[in-house]
């Protein structure tokens, strides 16, 4: 089964409506945004990060127009330092590849060991977008359905100010 089909099937089972825009492969948020001009919803970047010892994993979701201050985030997470997790670790933990990271990778996190952090600034939007575990598809869901997805997957999340 294609990774995106697992996302669609899961959202259908959860009764979460979604809209999908198919497009050429997008390796950056800027590239992905160029394919979804005019669609309602916050454009996100979803970052898969780890601590210095590579013993903790974080999924940080924020507006893609915002720059992440890694030092500030490390303070919030009470870590000395955070960095992007390796391609190998991304594949192991979420069965994803760089450029396709999204909340839907949690479907593949058998260890259930990823902590979720949402930037407060974007949460007032009605709709939110993510890749569908494939960087040729951008999926739009209601903000409230993102929370429903986390709850159904038994993941807690923390709202932070970046």
Question: What does it look like?
Answer:
- The protein is an alpha/beta fold and 162 residues long.
- Helix content is 27%, strand content 27%.
- It contains five helices and eight strands, in the order αβαββαβαβββαβ.
- It has helices spanning 3-13, 29-34, 70-77, 87-94, 143-152; strands spanning 19-22, 44-51, 57-63, 82-84, 114-119, 127-131, 137-142, 157-160.
- The protein has a five-stranded mixed beta sheet. The protein has a three-stranded antiparallel beta sheet with strand order 1-7-6.
- The longest helix has 11 residues, at 3-13.
- The protein is globular, with a radius of gyration of 15 Å.
- The chain starts with a helix and ends with a strand.
- The mean pLDDT is 94.
Brief characterization of the structure:
The chain is an alpha/beta fold and 162 residues long.
List keywords for this structure.
162 residues, single chain, alpha/beta, 27% strand, YbaK/aa-tRNA-synt-asso_dom_sf
What is the number of helical segments per DSSP (H or I, 4+ residues)?
5
Main sheet specs: 5 strands, mixed
Summing up helix and strand content along with how strands pair, one would put the structural category as alpha/beta
Q: State the total count of DSSP E strands.
A: 8
Strand % is 25-35%
Rounded radius of gyration (Å): 15 Å
Helix/strand order, N-terminal first: HEHEEHEHEEEHE
Give the oligomeric state of the chains in this entry, treating copies of one chain as homo and distinct chains as hetero. single chain
Ranges where pLDDT stays below 50 over 5 or more residues in a row are none
Helix content: 25-40%
Average pLDDT confidence is 94
Please state the overall shape, judged from the principal axes of the Cα atoms. Answer: globular
End-to-end C-alpha gap: 37 Å
Query: Strands of the biggest beta sheet: in what spatial order?
Result: 4-2-3-5-8
């Amino acid at each position: 089964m294609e990774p995106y089909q697992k996302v669609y099937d899961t959202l259908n089972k959860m009764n979460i409506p979604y809209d999908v825009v198919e497009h050429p492969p997008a390796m950056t948020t800027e590239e992905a945004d160029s394919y979804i001009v005019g669609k309602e919803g916050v454009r996100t970047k979803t970052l898969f990060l780890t601590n210095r010892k590579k013993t903790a994993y974080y999924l940080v979701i924020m507006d893609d127009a915002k720059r992440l201050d890694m030092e500030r985030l490390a303070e919030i997470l009470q870590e000395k330092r955070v960095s992007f997790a390796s391609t190998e670790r991304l594949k192991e933990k979420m069965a994803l590849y760089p450029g396709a990271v999204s909340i839907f990778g949690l479907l593949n996190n058998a260890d259930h060991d990823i902590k979720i952090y949402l930037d407060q600034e974007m949460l007032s939007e009605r709709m939110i977008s993510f890749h569908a575990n494939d960087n040729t598809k951008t999926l739009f869901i209601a903000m409230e359905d993102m929370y429903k997805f986390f709850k159904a997957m038994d993941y807690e999340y923390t709202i932070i100010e970046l």
